[in-house]
């Protein structure tokens, strides 16, 4: 593989193109300053304005959300996995029908496999612009977002209407629902009863892994984060490992699955038969199956990254709690 071919499979942090109208709450005060990024695959964006950096999906999607302080993402649910790790900033994740069933605060490098089928939201509670990276299960990311009813109602007051076709229409731009397309119906009371309300104690032990715990676990070999043998035991259609300076594979290796490399801290060098390149925090590299490659930290000091691999597991629901 030539350097040019590999570079086409790497999305650099500095090249990320944000969409500010990706979802129905894009005009709602408190959420109207967020930026969404679709890095690998189309994700669950509802807007035609979203730029997709790499369209080919490896069995999952990679995206990101960037938000200034006090900006929040509104309550919604997914049918397949949604996994976040904090690239920068300090974030509060909350869940439940009204966002009051439970919450957790995550710092840089922490990872959260949010249970499927519950309403969840998040906000930047830090002092600077923050970024969280996302892994979404399935090639089509579960067919979109399910919004809490109040989110759809609030959005209508600020000019955005979601059609039953899953597409967003901005009345401020003169857009209207096409003929024959009805607004997305609100969930009924009976439908809402099917959404679990797990507490903080229900969720944190099996769905949250802290950066410094993973650093300790990965001092000699990669730490398994998500998977049957992982710290977070799950089969969401992909597996996640955590790699540090002390746990990088000793030799060049290749795997039969797709592999996505996402540095958290430090500077890395990715080498393969045909070239090498630097990877930095916020970069996303999609290594194709069967390509022999190696990783080395490019400088002294702390270095860590998440490694995501496709698996044969179906990208279905992950919440099995009460």
Automatic annotation (TrEMBL):
InterPro entries (UniProt xref): Cupin_2 (IPR013096), RmlC-like_jellyroll (IPR014710), RmlC_Cupin_sf (IPR011051)
Residues annotated as domain Cupin type-2: 69-132
Origin organism lineage: Bacteria, Pseudomonadati, Pseudomonadota, Alphaproteobacteria, Rhodobacterales
UniProt xrefs under Gene3D superfamilies: Jelly Rolls
Source organism per UniProt: Marivita geojedonensis
UniProt name for this protein: Cupin
